[in-house]
Design goal:
alpha/beta; nine-stranded mixed beta sheet; 18 helices; 25% helix; Metal-dep_hydrolase_composite; manganese; Amidohydro-rel; Adenine deaminase
Length: 607
C-alpha cells in the first residue's frame, strides 16, 4: 500500500519475521517500555505494559518484552505515560485544509493523527481521476496510514445544477478502486435523492464499489425520521457524517450505519450528536469522531483529532470510549482493524504517547509505521517530497476580465421594491436558511441599501466550460464597510465565488484571484489580503506554517470588515454546495434543497 520507505507492507508479507520477533529469535527494531496501555479493544487501561515493534508492525504486547530486545533495538522508556493507538480521521478532505498531502501530514502527525480516510472529491471536481491519482500517490509518500476514497459525486448532483471541471461515473469508480488496497471505497454519496429514486449513475457507482469489496460512505440531509433513510441504507451506503442531532445518530445506528460526529473548524456538531450516547445510552461501537474539516489555522491553534477527542470527553464521554471512537471504531468501519486502530500484535506500529491526564489528550510523541516521527509538537523526521504534476497548475480558466456589470442584478420591475430569496448563513453549521427579503430597485436593477446588511453573491464557471455565472443575495455576513471576498475554494465545483457589498471591489477581487491562478482575496478600501492556492485553485504548495498564516490573514481581514462568523472563510466556501439544505447558489442559479428534492428556483419570488 505504501512506499518501501515507510514499510507499510501487507501483513501476509510480514508474518515470518513478525512471528520470529515475537518469539525473540529475531530482535525488535523498537521497544516502548513502561506504558499505561489504552486498550481500545477491551476498553481497559493496562499499567506496566510494553510494546515490541519489528519494522512497521507490532510483534509483541505484554508485561515483559525483554526477550525481543537486541543490541540494535531502539528503546523508549515511557515512564508511565499513556500509550494509545494513533488517532484516525474517519472523514476528511485534505484539500479543505488548503494543504497538499505532504504538508497535511506534517501538520497532523505531531498532533497524534497517524491515519485517515480521505475523500479527495475537491480535487476530483477540478481534475477528475488525474487529481485523485496524484493525491493518492502523494499520500503514499508520507508516514500516514492514508486511505483514499474515489469521489462519488462529480458533480455533486448533475450538470444541470452546476458546472464542474470533470465527470466521474461507475466506470471511473471501478478504475480508481483497482489502484490498490488503500483505495478503500466510495466517497460520500451526496446525491442521496439520486440513490433513493434509482438514478443509474449513483446506483452504478455503489454497485462498482460493492463488487470491488469496498465501502460506500453517505451524505443524507433529509430529516432523521424521513421514511427514505432506510431506502438509502438499503443501497449499501453504511456510514454518514451528516449528523447534527442525537436523533440523526440514533436512527442511523439502528439501521446498521456508522454515524460520524464531526467537529470541524466551522461546524460544531459533537456536543449535540454525542447525546445519543451520553443521554440516550446508545452503544458507541458504530459511532465515530471525525473532522470534516479543520482549516490550517485551526490545526495550528487548536489541533486535529486530538482536539475532537478532547472535546468529546468534555461532553461527558469516558476517555477510553472517546479514543475508541477515533481509532478502533473507525478502523472497523472500513474493514482495516487488523492493520490500524489498536495496539495489538500484527497491527501497524502507529502509537502515540500521552502525558498527564488521559482526558487532556496531550500528545508528546507520535510513532508511525514503527518510527518516531514527532515529539513535543514538532516533526522529527523528513522524507523525500512528492513532485506535483504540471496538470495540477493553471486550472483557473475564466477566459475574461470581470467588470461591475457582471454583478448587476436585473429585477422584474423598473423601480420600487422586489422580494427575493436570500441565503442566510448559519454560524458553526453547514446548513443555510432560505429567507424572503425586500430589496430596492432602481432602473430595473437591484440597489442594496448599505444599512440592510445584505450582500451579493456571484458564482462564475472557471473550468473553461462556457463561462456562465449566476447572482444571489446573502444575509448574515455582517460587513460594515465596502468589502468583497473572492475565492476558488467553493465546494464542491470550486468555481469562482465572489461575495460583497460593492460591485467594483467584487470585480477587482475576482480578477486578482483569476490572475494568481486560484486562491482567496479579501478586499476593502483599506487594503487587500491574499491567499494564493495554485494547486488546482484549492491548495497551496507552501509549507504548513505559511498556509496557516495566510489563512489566518483572510480570517482577520473578514473580522476587520465586520464579519462576525466563526471561521467565516470555511463557512462561506460552502455556499455553493448544492446538496446541503436549505438554499445555495451555483453557476447555474439559486438551488433549493428540500424534502422533495434539489431544484433551481428563481431569485425573485414574484410577489
Amino acid at each position: 500500500m505504501k512506499t518501501a520507505a515507510w514499510g507499510r507492507r501487507p501483513l501476509a508479507d510480514c508474518v515470518p519475521e513478525l512471528v520470529a520477533a515475537a518469539r525473540g529469535d529475531k530482535k525488535a527494531t523498537l521497544v516502548i517500555q513502561n506504558v499505561r496501555l489504552v486498550n481500545v479493544v477491551s476498553g481497559e487501561i493496562l499499567p506496566g505494559m510494553s510494546i515490541a515493534v519489528k519494522d512497521a508492525r507490532i510483534a509483541y504486547v505484554g508485561k515483559d518484552v525483554s526477550h525481543a530486545i537486541g543490541e540494535e533495538t531502539q528503546i523508549i522508556d515511557a515512564d508511565g505515560k499513556y500509550a494509545a493507538p494513533g488517532l484516525l480521521d474517519g472523514h476528511c478532505h485534505i484539500e479543505s485544509t488548503q494543504m497538499t498531502a505532504t504538508e497535511f501530514a506534517r501538520a497532523v502527525l505531531p498532533l497524534g493523527t497517524t491515519g485517515g480516510f480521505f475523500d479527495a472529491h475537491e480535487i476530483s471536481n477540478v481534475l477528475g481521476l488525474d487529481g485523485l491519482r496524484f493525491m493518492l500517490e502523494e499520500a503514499r509518500s508520507t508516514p500516514l496510514a492514508a486511505y483514499m476514497q474515489v469521489a462519488s459525486c462529480v458533480p455533486s448532483t448533475h450538470p444541470g445544477l452546476e458546472t464542474t471541471g470533470a465527470f466521474i461515473g461507475p466506470e471511473e469508480v471501478a478504475e480508481a478502486l483497482s489502484w490498490g488496497e488503500d483505495m478503500i471505497g466510495l466517497g460520500e454519496v451526496m446525491n442521496f435523492p439520486g440513490v433513493v429514486y434509482g438514478d443509474d449513475k449513483m446506483i452504478g457507482e455503489i454497485q462498482a464499489t460493492l463488487r470491488a469489496g469496498k465501502y460506500a460512505d453517505g451524505h443524507f440531509t433529509w430529516k432523521s425520521d424521513d421514511w427514505r433513510l432506510p431506502v438509502y441504507a438499503a443501497s449499501g451506503v453504511n456510514g454518514d457524517h451528516e449528523c447534527v442531532t442525537a436523533e440523526d445518530v440514533i436512527e442511523r445506528v439502528r439501521l446498521g450505519m456508522y454515524a460520524k460526529m464531526r467537529q470541524g473548524s466551522a461546524w460544531h456538531d459533537v456536543a449535540a450528536t454525542i447525546k445519543a450516547h451520553t443521554e440516550g445510552g446508545l452503544d458507541t461501537r458504530r459511532m465515530i469522531l471525525v473532522t470534516d474539516d479543520r482549516s490550517s489555522e485551526s490545526l495550528m491553534n487548536e489541533g486535529h483529532m486530538n482536539f475532537v477527542v478532547r472535546h468529546a470527553i468534555a461532553q461527558g464521554v469516558k476517555p477510553v470510549t472517546a479514543f475508541q471512537m477515533a481509532t478502533i471504531n473507525t478502523a472497523e468501519r472500513f474493514g482495516v482493524s487488523r492493520d490500524i486502530g489498536a495496539i495489538i500484535p500484527g497491527a501497524y506500529a502507529d502509537v502515540i504517547l500521552l502525558d498527564g491526564n488521559l482526558a487532556d489528550v496531550n500528545v508528546v510523541m507520535t510513532i508511525a509505521a514503527g518510527k518516531v516521527v514527532a515529539e513535543h509538537g514538532r516533526m522529527t523526521t523528513e522524507w523525500e517530497r512528492y513532485d506535483l504534476p504540471a496538470l495540477a497548475f493553471n486550472t483557473v480558466k475564466l477566459g475574461r476580465k470581470l467588470s461591475t456589470d457582471d454583478f448587476a442584478i436585473t429585477a422584474p420591475i423598473a423601480v420600487g421594491k422586489a422580494e427575493v430569496r436570500a441565503i442566510e448563513v448559519v454560524e458553526n453549521h453547514v446548513e443555510t436558511i432560505e429567507r424572503q427579503v425586500w430589496v430596492d430597485v432602481v432602473n430595473s436593477t437591484v440597489n442594496l441599501d448599505p444599512a440592510s446588511g445584505l450582500c451579493k453573491m456571484a458564482v462564475f464557471e472557471r473550468h473553461g466550460k462556457g463561462g456562465g455565472h449566476a447572482l444571489g443575495i446573502l444575509t448574515g455576513i455582517g460587513f460594515n464597510k465596502p468589502a468583497a471576498i473572492a475565492m476558488t475554494v467553493s465546494h464542491d465545483s470550486h468555481n469562482l465565488t465572489v461575495i460583497g457589498n460593492d460591485d467594483e471591489l467584487m470585480a477587482r477581487a475576482g480578477n486578482i484571484v483569476a490572475d494568481m491562478q486560484g486562491g482567496v482575496v479579501m478586499l476593502t478600501e483599506d487594503g487587500v489580503s491574499e491567499f494564493p492556492l495554485t494547486v488546482g485553485g484549492i491548495m497551496s504548495k507552501e509549507p504548513f506554517e505559511t498556509v496557516a498564516r495566510q489563512s489566518e490573514g483572510i480570517s482577520q481581514a473578514l473580522i476587520q470588515a465586520g464579519c462576525p462568523l466563526n471561521n467565516a472563510f470555511m463557512t462561506l466556501s460552502l455556499l455553493a454546495l448544492v446538496v446541503i439544505p436549505e438554499i445555495r447558489l451555483s453557476d447555474k442559479g439559486l438551488v433549493r434543497i428540500s424534502a422533495d428534492g434539489i431544484d433551481i428556483v428563481p431569485l425573485f419570488t414574484g410577489k
